[in-house]
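Subject: complex prediction, re-run

Hi both,

The earlier run crashed halfway through, so I resubmitted it with identical inputs.
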Amino acid sequence: MPRITQRLAASFAALVVAAGVFAALPVGVVRPAAASPQAAARSFGGARGLLDAQPSLTRIISAELRAADDSQQLFASAFSAAPDLLAQLPDRPFWIDGSGPRLRGELIAQTERLDIYVGIGTFSPEQIAALAPQLEQILRDNEYWYGQRLSHRVSLGFFRPAAAEINGARGIAYTDHDRAEVYFAGGEDIDRALVVTAHELAHHLEKERFGNEAQKRADTILHEGLATWITGGRWLAMVGASTWQERGQQLRDAGVPLRLATAEQYGANNAYELWASFVHYLLRFYGWEKFDTLYASGRSRYPGSADYQGVYGKSLNELADEWRAWLNS
Ligand SMILES: [Zn+2]
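This time it finished cleanly. Structure:
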């Protein structure tokens, strides 16, 4: 199966860019300040429904459009979210008033928590508007998988690949500006774009859990591994696996070395998936509390920067040995 994207050049010396298909916010890159919300986005009244005053802009209530909420079923299908945090999740998506930051392109839909924009040279506004309930559902599924709720609106934009600020990136999460962008050409596989979307929205849930500062200095293994893990069944379905253990075994059998710190040498997607498998191992055998402490202990994007020894009493290498043994069991 062709990779979703090209691999990006890593820049660990500068500790700014997590190489890969799905780049999260690079530290130290200057961002334009969020513009005022578009006037159209402020013009909504209280009633939920289609807006006739803004014919190109559809306000969508996903909960009312879904035939069935399969989130719980998805959650129950695998070892998953932190139970205490899961208890905070409401039964239905909730509407957050206001608007996310203004993006370029056209604002075409609002869901409960997402402002959805489309640029030129990518999927059509009609395609994306039709997918809007599914985009909210992706966020919803992420929340169930992870047990972390998004508390603010996020602007999500679809743009052509050349529009990416990081060459070759298919998605970028600007977590300190409440926006996420996905880069695909119009003729490309929209299902893959949805998996990228899930990954970028997952970075926003990471930020929700740990705060912006901790996320910015998070160890890449944990930062990208967790965001990939949060997408759960959606990513696994794309690669034809049912669990992260199975996916690790598939990569091993395909000849990908089971090395964590240097995983990106063998392709960004391979790296993200190995890291997700490792994150799953840590969660499965050591629990959430230690994992959260580990994530927050990161000192930079450098792979291995987190304090594995201090949190687990074992080095990254020792934990990786355990993970490899688990894959080989
Ligand atoms: Zn990412």
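The domain at 22-214 is CATH 3.30.2010.30 (Zincin-like).

- K.
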